[in-house]
Write a structure and sequence with these properties.
By secondary structure, the chain is of the alpha/beta class. About 30% of the residues lie in helices and about 20% in strands. The protein has 17 helices and 18 strands. The chain has a 6-stranded mixed beta sheet with strand order 6-5-7-1-8-18, sandwiched between helices. Helix 9 links the parallel strand 5 (about 165-170) and strand 6 (about 190). Helix 10 runs parallel beside helix 12 (about 235-250) and helix 11 (about 220-230) packs antiparallel against helix 12 (about 235-250). The longest helix is centred in the middle third of the chain and has 18 residues, at about 235-250. The protein is globular, with a radius of gyration of 20 Å.
Length: about 400
C-alpha cells in the first residue's frame, strides 16, 4: 500500500497522490478501540499511540465539525479553539475520517472500530449486490436486515461484556434506527431532545460506573452547513452553540474522566454553476454504460452495465480526470481508500468506478437527487477540508 501523501503538499489526479486516511494509527476507526483498550476491554487494541488511558471516557461527536473549519472560526468557538493543542494526545494534530468522509461511513467506523472495507458502509448510497438496488445507508432505504449488512459487534457491546458501563446519549429519534443498531448499539441508550440535556446526561452516565464509555452526538451544525454553507450566519451560530455545549460537558466531568470532542467529517462549500456542479442526469457522456450512480457529489460510486466497466472508467477519466481522482474498484481497494482490507461481502458494494473530488466540484444528479444537488456545503472526498477532524481532550 502506498503511504499517505502530505496533507499540505499533494498533487491532483494520479492515484498515488490521494492523501490516504491514517487507518491503523490515526483514523476515526482507531478511536474507540484505543479508548476501550485503556479500559481493559478484551479484543480491543490501542492504535492511536498518543492517547493516555482514563477510567471514564466520553466521546462527543459533532456532525460536520472539521478541523479546518474549527481553526478558521476562533471567535465563534473560543473554548474549542483553546483546546486545539490538546488534539490527538497533546500533539496538536487531527485525526482522519476515513473514505468516504460521510456520516454513515464514519459512524460505522467509530462504533465498530473498523475501517469501511470491513464494516461495509462504504458510502452514502451503495449498491446492494443481492438486489442490484441502491441502498441509502444513512436512511437505511430500502430496508435491509441490519446485522446481515454489518455483522461485527460494536465497541460498546464489547465494553458492556467486559463490565464497562457503556451508554449513548443522543436524540430519541435515533434510538431504534438500523444505523444505530449496526454502529452504536450496546449498553444503555439515553434519548434527550436538547443539546444541553444531552451534555448533562452524558456527564451523569460517565459517573454511573467506575469504568465508563459514553458517546454523545450533535447534528445541527452539519445541517446548517449543508443548507447555508460553512461560515454562513446560521452555521456560525450553530458553532457557537457547539462551543457552549462542549464547555458545559467539560465543566461537569466526574473524577478520572477524559472528554474527547471529535467529528465525522469536515465540509466544503461548492459554488453554483456549471463549472463547479456537473449534472450527471444531463451529461450523456457520463451516463453512457452506467446502470446506477451511488455515493454523493464528492465521492461517487459508479456501477457499470455488465461488460461496460472498462469503457466507463476510460470515459470518466477523460471527462473528469483533471478534477477527480478516478479509480477502478480494484485500484481503489489496492490503494487502501477503504482500509487495509475489504471483506468479500463488501467488495461489490464498491463502485466499478470510484470518483473522489480533488477540486471545488460536485457531480450532482438533478433528477435522481434533487435535494442533495442543491446543498451548499458538501463533503465525502479526501481533501483536508473534508478528511481532517479534531480530537480535542479535556481531563478531570
Amino acid at each position: 500500500m502506498s503511504q499517505p501523501a502530505a496533507w499540505d503538499a499533494y498533487e491532483p489526479l494520479a492515484l498515488d497522490t490521494a492523501p490516504l486516511p491514517e487507518y491503523g494509527s490515526g483514523s476515526l476507526a482507531d478511536l474507540l478501540p484505543t479508548l476501550a483498550a485503556g479500559l481493559g476491554v478484551p479484543g480491543t487494541t490501542a492504535t492511536i499511540a498518543e492517547l493516555t488511558p482514563a477510567d471514564r471516557v466520553c466521546v462527543f461527536l459533532v456532525d460536520g465539525l472539521g478541523w479546518e473549519q474549527l481553526r478558521a472560526h476562533p471567535d465563534e468557538a473560543p473554548f474549542l479553539n483553546s483546546l486545539l493543542g490538546t488534539s490527538r494526545g497533546g500533539t496538536g494534530r487531527p485525526l482522519t475520517a476515513g473514505y468516504p468522509a460521510t456520516t454513515a461511513t464514519s459512524l460505522g467506523s467509530v462504533g465498530t472500530g473498523l475501517p469501511p472495507g470491513a464494516h461495509g458502509l462504504p458510502g452514502y448510497t451503495v449498491r446492494n449486490p443481492e438486489t442490484d438496488e441502491l441502498m441509502n445507508q444513512l436512511r437505511w432505504r430500502p430496508w435491509t436486515p441490519p446485522h446481515v449488512w454489518q455483522p461485527y459487534p460494536t465497541v460498546f457491546e464489547l465494553a458492556e461484556r467486559a463490565g464497562v458501563h457503556a451508554a449513548q446519549v443522543s436524540s430519541p429519534t435515533f434510538r431504534d434506527t438500523p444505523l444505530t443498531q449496526v454502529a452504536l448499539s450496546g449498553g444503555t441508550f439515553i434519548g434527550r431532545l436538547t443539546g444541553e440535556e444531552r451534555m448533562d446526561a452524558a456527564a451523569e452516565q460517565l459517573a454511573a460506573g467506575d469504568r465508563s464509555l459514553v458517546y454523545t452526538y450533535y447534528a445541527e451544525l452539519d445541517g446548517a452547513g449543508h443548507r447555508y454553507g460553512v461560515g454562513s450566519d446560521t452555521w456560525r451560530g450553530q458553532l457557537m452553540t457547539v462551543d457552549r455545549l462542549a464547555q458545559r460537558l467539560a465543566e461537569q466531568l466526574p473524577p478520572r474522566s477524559a472528554l474527547y470532542v471529535t467529528a465525522d467529517h469536515g465540509m466544503i462549500d461548492i459554488p453554483f454553476g456549471d463549472e463547479h456542479r456537473i449534472d450527471f442526469d444531463e451529461d450523456w457522456e457520463l451516463r453512457a454504460g452506467v446502470s446506477l450512480l451511488g455515493g454523493e457529489g464528492r465521492a461517487r460510486h459508479v456501477y457499470a452495465v455488465p461488460g461496460a466497466e472498462s469503457d466507463v472508467l476510460t470515459c470518466w477519466r477523460e471527462v473528469l480526470g483533471d478534477r477527480f481522482w478516478i479509480a477502478s474498484r480494484d485500484e481503489a481497494i489496492t490503494a487502501g481508500w477503504f482500509g487495509p482490507h475489504v471483506d468479500d461481502r463488501v467488495y461489490l458494494r464498491i463502485g466499478d468506478v470510484v470518483a473522489a473530488a480533488y477540486d471545488d466540484v460536485l457531480i450532482t444528479a438533478s433528477e435522481r437527487e434533487p435535494k442533495e444537488s442543491l446543498m451548499v456545503g458538501n463533503h465525502g472526498s479526501m481533501t483536508p477540508a473534508e478528511q481532517l477532524v479534531p480530537l480535542l481532550e479535556v481531563r478531570s
